[in-house]
Amino acid sequence: MAADETSKPVEVLVSVARDGGRTLGSQIETQLRDAVRAGRLRAGDRVPSTRDLAAQLGVARRVVVGAYGQLAAEGYLTLRQGARPCVAESARTPVPSPAQPDRAAATPRFDLRPRAPDVSGFPRTEWLRCLREALRTMTNADLGYGDPRGAEPLRWALSGYLGRVRGVAADPGRVVVTNGYSQAQGLVCRTLLARGARRIGFENPSHPEQRRIAERAGLTVVPVAVDDAGVRLDALERADVDALVLTPAHQHPTGAVLAGDRRRGLLDWLRRRDVVVIEDDYDAEYRYDRAAVGALQGLDPDRVVYAGSASKTLAPALRLGWLVVPPSMVAAVADEKDLADCGTAQIEQHAFAGFLSRGELDRHLRRMRARYRRGRDRLLAELAHALPEATVRGIAAGLHATVELPDGYDEHAILREARRRGIDLTTMHGFWIPPTAGPPTLLVGYAQLPVPTIPDAVRALADAVRASAR
Ligand SMILES: Cc1ncc(COP(=O)(O)O)c(C=O)c1O
């Protein structure tokens, strides 16, 4: 056996008691035997050398040699000259294999769900470079818990990026780095509750998980109607709320972009009613018909909590999000973050800071925007052909379109037929706040479909729609 294999330290959970009861050797034997029988140690697993285990337990080496000899004689361990002792093949215990996800079911033929970007375009090389650079330059102090608001280089980099690209008034001291938008919203909801808020408005329709986050924090969700121009001002006037969650850049899930007069009316309402808005700037990086409109936060940084995420620009797996918080809320939100998890992973934060500062996100988005735009145009052309009776909306921005079908279609039946054809699909159903319901509508994401496969995907989708009506 190679020298490095025998010299790698291995640890096992064994302890001995010197209370005059059983001998030290028999205690070691019993624990290792039990571990093998229970499957905690499996055939082929290495165990510590006799020298190492003796040192770990503070016993004479001959005690461990004796115990290992007994276990080898019983067929639990394999001992060979010069090789690390290991659990014998003959000791193989039938270990129940963890439930494996059904790969066929997990990989649909066409993934039309609007949740994720095209992660096959994730800039692995550039990210790796930034990770290496982070590890090379981080000090020992940087490897501690750090400021709960997040690593300073990232708060500075986000402040510059958000100011430049989204018009956010983002002093680095007011930036709080989070594990995605979902955590960010939870932190703000708990802060608002502690300050006396009880009722929080959500666009109707809106993402059910985000409503659950608010409810879990202790707030009561109040529906606020939206239409093709975003949140409705008359609905806001009627809503008796202390706070509001909005997706102005691309209403989720209708895809409406908040119209200019609505933005002005909304800001006026905020000031009159002294309400705090959480601006979920999800999808803001993808605007196709014209240049993106800046974030609301830039117009009223004392009442708007800005929230962003890397989930749609890079990958949900990063779990990186950020808040820009009004000055009066910074300490409380930072405290919530500290209580939640003592801060987001520091090495990734430093890597992301480098990624932003080097302009890698700008480069990545320029490339992806062009690819998504081609996907969107192709999708629209194919839908017009294959489902001419549908009304397609929400296409000015984001990574999905809403496809409204005439009354009489049943979303559940379409989902069933889609599944039979290997299509993963989302419909509007779960997004409405009960008892509201709307016309049958499909949410068709185009980010995860390679552009050349879009015609086939739309044909299969149209087949599912037709079959559902039979
Ligand atoms: C409306 C909306 N905002 C934000 C997010 C991003 O959440 P996270 O950053 O936690 O991945 C999602 C993800 O599904 C979403 O649907």
UniProtKB/TrEMBL annotation:
Instruction: Give the matching InterPro entries.
Output: Aminotransferase_I/II_large, HTH_trans_reg/aminotransferase, PyrdxlP-dep_Trfase, PyrdxlP-dep_Trfase_major, Tscrpt_reg_HTH_GntR, WH-like_DNA-bd_sf, WH_DNA-bd_sf
A molecular function GO annotation = pyridoxal phosphate binding
Kindly state which keywords UniProt assigns to this record, in alphabetical order: DNA-binding, Pyridoxal phosphate, Transcription, Transcription regulation
Instruction: Name all HTH gntR-type domain ranges.
Output: 22-90
Out of the domains of life, which is the source? Bacteria
- The UniProt entry's coiled-coil ranges are none
> According to its UniProt record, what is one Pfam family this protein matches?
GntR
What family is this?
Answer: In the C-terminal section; belongs to the class-I pyridoxal-phosphate-dependent aminotransferase family.
Protein name from the UniProt record: GntR family transcriptional regulator
